[in-house]
Amino acid sequence: MKTSYLNPFGQAALNVLKNFGNITRISQKEPHINEIITNTRNQDPKKIDTIQELCYEKIRYYYTRQANNKTSGYKYLFSQALEEEDIISTHALLQAAAITYGTQSYEADTIINTITSILDVKLDQTTDTIMDETLNEYIDIHNTTLNDIILLINNNEIKLNELLLNKDKLILTYDDFIREYSEYLQHRRPENMYQAVCTSMKKHLLRALITEKLRNYMKTIENKLKQIEPATIITEIGHQIKKIQNAEQEMVIKRRYGKNVNFTSFDDDNPTKYIPEAFPPCVQKALHGIKSGGRNYCISLFLTPFLSYARLYPGVYARHIKNPKITDMDPTLTITEEEIIPLIYEAASKCKPPLFQDQPQEKQNINSKLGFGEGEIKYENSGKTPWYTPINCKNIKEQQPGLCTPCQDCKKIGNPLSYYNRKRKLLAKSGGKG
Ligand code: SF4
Predict the structure, then answer these.
(1) What is the dihedral of CA 36, 37, 40, 45, to 10 degrees?
(2) Which residue among 306, 317, 419 is best mutated to probe the pocket of ligand 1, counting the most ligand atoms within 8 A of its Cβ?
(3) How many Cβ atoms from other residues are within 10 Å of residue 271's Cβ?
(4) Distance between CA 424 and CA 426 in Å, rounded?
(5) Ligand 1 center to 310 CA (angstroms)
(6) Pocket flag, ligand 1, residue 410 (CB < 6 Å)
(7) How far is CA 157 from CA 189, 205, 207, 210, 334, in A?
(8) Assessment of whether the complete model's pTM goes beyond 0.70
């Protein structure tokens, strides 16, 4: 095994890149890939003719793994014999995402996650010696202090509690480990103790160093290509990244909707289609717009959080996900832009006078309540402000009493979203008969 198996930026990997020649070669047939597929044990049969196709395979592998589906169709991706094609495809993906979407995009994050999800499997297969050699390509493993890797901690690439430190020095090698801890290791096998304590730390550290390098590499490419025209093949891969994302996400959504359509169970931690018959009286009223006086409260403070959480994360009050952002639930923002925003804007237009007619700035306020700060609804703005949770009944009754015209079902709840969740389940049980 070589360090280039793990590190696409080490000297060996850079030599592969240098010797590869013109990037257009990635669209040419490389019979070697299919030879590797055929010779990989327990690999499902498939045909991948070019490095370009290999790029797309990697993204599909990431989504397959995310969905906890079988990955037996992708075992060949971890073959050491695929070294050259692996390195070239990794660089092609990074360049394509950086050029087409920029480093702050959802697509760039997907490519980083794709590469690190493959790296995770490789790290589990690697030897201690190769891990040390690869770490040495980034840091001096005999002499690294906390200060040397402080950026990784600040950027949340690694946590302090994942590191073994003596004062501020990282303990990474067996020699250092024995020197520092031999007195505590009597009657134990020091090799086993070292493996137990240090191996997973080294994996975390190497993963963090490579991830940081992936991000920096993308930034460099993004800046460089402002000055020069990118190769057509790279732009083509860039466009394909989004197509694969959409197709994979559609499949996930289909699976989720399948569940709800049959009413076999409710997965309230994920996007769920609206059931308008289950909206509480206050929401039904707000959707028809209201008169001047409480329009901002009704549209921005009340309706915006309700409609966004009801569609994307109705189970928010179970608090399974900490500090959620809209993009955690709707990474491409398709649901937000195509379903949630139109409903909010329609209600705003039905107000008297229409809300945006005299207060166009209220659109920014809505974006801010959805967590996009004062900016546009874009992936990179998500999380700039907190995503407001739905207001409770007590507050509505105090601030906008005209909105609250309680029905029988309101007796059992304290928040319109709880009303909605309860009512959806009651409707499902009664076969939608209310
Ligand atoms: S009691 Fe709560 S849920 Fe019912 S109408 Fe009033 S505000 Fe809405």
Answers:
(1) -160
(2) 419
(3) 19
(4) 6
(5) 15
(6) yes
(7) 32, 9, 8, 10, 28
(8) no
Closest alpha carbon to 308 in 254, 234, 385, 205: 385
Confirm or reject: Cβ of 391 under 6 Å from ligand 1: no
Q: What is residue 252's predicted lDDT score, i.e. its pLDDT? A: 61
161: which 2 tokens? 């509690």
Token pair of 422 as six digits: 């309860």
| Separation CA 432–CA 434 (nearest Å) | 6
Residues of the chain with pLDDT under 70: 68, 249-250, 252-266, 431-434
* 431 dihedral zone (left: phi>0; alpha: psi -120 to 50; beta): left
Any ligand 1 atom below 6 A from CB of 418: no
The residues, any chain, with a CB within 8 Å of residue 375's CB and separated by 6 or more, are 367, 381, 384
CA distance 310 to 33: 46
- Tell me, in angstroms, the distance from the centre of ligand 1 to residue 360's CA: 28
Separation of alpha carbons 73 and 216, rounded Å: 31
Q: Is 375 in the pocket of ligand 1 (CB under 6 A)?
A: no
> Using a 6 Å cutoff on CB, does residue 278 contact ligand 1?
no
Q: Is the dihedral of CA 283, 289, 291, 296 positive or negative?
A: positive
- How far apart are the C-alpha atoms of 287 and 283, rounded to whole Å? 6
User: If residue 427 lies in a helix (H) or strand (E), which one and from where to where?
Assistant: helix 416-429
Hey, how many other C-beta atoms are within 10 angstroms of the C-beta on 252?
A: 14
Strand, coil or helix: 85: helix
Preceding peptide of 386 cis, ω within 30°: no
Kindly tell me the burial class for residue 314, based on how many C-beta atoms sit within 10 Å of its own C-beta (0-12, 13-18, 19 or more): buried
Residues 6+ apart with CB under 8 A from 196: none
Angle at 73 between CA 67 and CA 77, to 5 degrees: 100
Token pair 């005999």 is found at: 142
CA-CA distance, 390 to 317, in Å (whole number)? 10
- What's the full length of the chain, in residues? 434
Q: So what's the pLDDT on residue 233?
A: 94
What's residue 263's pLDDT? 37
Domain ranges of the chain: 3-251, 263-429
Q: Say whether 166 sits in a helix, a strand or coil.
A: strand
